[in-house]
Amino acid sequence: MGLDDYHRQLILGILDLIASQTRTRLIFVSHLSEEWPACINQKLEFVSIGETTHSLIQHDL
Fold this sequence. Notes:
Layout: H1 5-21, E1 42-49, E2 53-60
Antiparallel strand pairs: 1-2
């Protein structure tokens, strides 16, 4: 169970404020891309290659 819509938006806004007002770097983990803070400008994606191997792909947003 996660946050309700109001508190989810509040947290995302706080993260954007922290990113814009400080030199803090954020690592944000989510399974849902529509829930990313606006300040996120890169994405790391794990892609399966076979049953036991994964590749890491970096995307600029």
